[in-house]
Amino acid sequence: MISPASKRRSVLLIGCGNMGSAIALALQHTAENLDLTVIDPDEARARQILGSQNDIKVVNDSAALGSAQFEACILAVKPTSALETLVNTQQNLQSSLVISIAAGVPLAKLQQGVTDRARVARVMPNLAALVRKSITVGYAKDGIATEDRLLVEALFGAIGRFHWLKSEDEIDLATAVTGSGPGYVFSFVQHLQQAAERVGFSKETADLFARQIIVGAAGLVDEDPRSPLELKHAVASPGGTTAAGLAVFEQAEAMPRILNKTVAAAAVRAKELATEQS
Questions:
Q1: φ, ψ at 78 (rounded to 5°)
Q2: What CA–CA distance (Å, rounded) separates 14 from 81?
Q3: Domain 9-167, CATH 3.40.50.720 — does that match?
Q4: Are 139 and 165 in contact, with CB atoms under 8 Å apart?
Q5: Where residue 4 falls among pLDDT bands split at 50, 70, 90?
Q6: Residue 6 — very low, low, confident or very high, per pLDDT cuts 50/70/90?
Q7: Distance between CA 248 and CA 233 in Å, rounded?
Q8: Class of domain 181-273 as given by CATH
Q9: How far apart are CA 270 and CA 173, in angstroms?
Q10: Which of 64, 119, 243, 247 qualifies as a cystine partner to 59, CB 3.0-4.6 A?
Q11: In the predicted model, is pLDDT for residue 2 greater than 70?
Q12: CA 120 distance to own-chain centroid
């Protein structure tokens, strides 16, 4: 979290889609010492999303920045546009820390779009950034300054928790777990709701049950010091209903195999996308 006591910082956010807007809104509420400028081609939509009760400056093109320089830039555009976008804003990022959330675009390619004085880091948030509950992973080369690393942690700590990875390869692997993970959980909730309907509950009641089950379980995982295994044992009394259900759920060919195959498939695709962008 960027503390009020730290120096005032100027940050440029390029792209105000789902992730870009989530980051901007989180920073708006947590970083009083931040001067935030947003570039989005649909300026009117961006202003509507971000609201008017803030000091965020919104423009539709880098030309509107003039000669302004920024301490940091968060690049939140589609991977295919990342390099071109950096080249177009290079004059405003002469000595900036550039933080890219463009999936699969390697540091080497990003470096082609910035000056020799700029530094580059890659991060990967997930959709839970919309409610400031993301797990964001990041990677930067060893030469990046500690102050830069702390700034990355502060900016992305505004949308949840942040974790540095040891290699750039890991950020593509992490995409299959941390980036795609919410989708797996949503699928579980969907099918839990449908299972509740099949045993006789209405769609509305089943929806309520499924949503609150995942919210409650997530709260326990977050706040209770016990491991997920210990929490599972706490709810699964020997010979009880939970134990009967888990006996099916955890068969070797059931959830364990499905999850392993799911993450492996996502990891393969993440590597393919990274290769396409390199």
A1: -65, 145
A2: 11
A3: yes
A4: yes
A5: very low
A6: low
A7: 15
A8: mainly alpha
A9: 7
A10: 64
A11: no
A12: 17
